[in-house]
Design goal:
The protein is largely without helices or strands. The protein is about 15% helix and about 10% strand.
Amino acid sequence: MDDYKISATTLGRALQKLVAEGLMTQGELENKLPAYPRHHRILHRDTGSIIYQGESDSLAQLVEEAISRRVDFSGADFSSVDLARADLSGGRFCKADFRNACLLGTDFTGANLAKATLVSSNLFGAVLYKTNLAGAVLSDANLAMVYAMWAFLPAANLAECNLSQANFSGAHLANAHLFETILKETNLTGAYLEGVNLDAAKKIGFG
């Protein structure tokens, strides 16, 4: 950049052109782009209106900043985004769309995700301690190794989810849907399970 007197933006555009022409992959591009703040926007899933926007090194960093400012992300579109290992504790995400999102190790402690959509999302190792997931749709999501102690999940759809080695002790799971849900070494100690059909789940040594 110094040798050819070009800006980070110009370099970024040149690299994007290489991707478009098939000369490099998007992953290789991400490794080559210089580290500089980028503009991110979070839109409403239904209206497309802007809920929050700003400059940040990553979307996760921007969302963390917004939560610290008590921004309400109810109805936000987070589909297919990468929020891995972000601290989203206490956030408000009612009816937000997280389908196909990477939420690996994400901290949702005390967050409100009532009626949120998390279909096919990857929540491996996420923290769902006292998280409100009432009526949320998590079908086909990966919840292996999640820490969901005292989580609130009445009427949540957990069909075909992977709950292997997850900790749901003390969780409220009344009327939750567990069709073909994998319960391998899942901890359900003290969980409230009224209206739950455990026979429909794939139970492999859980306690």
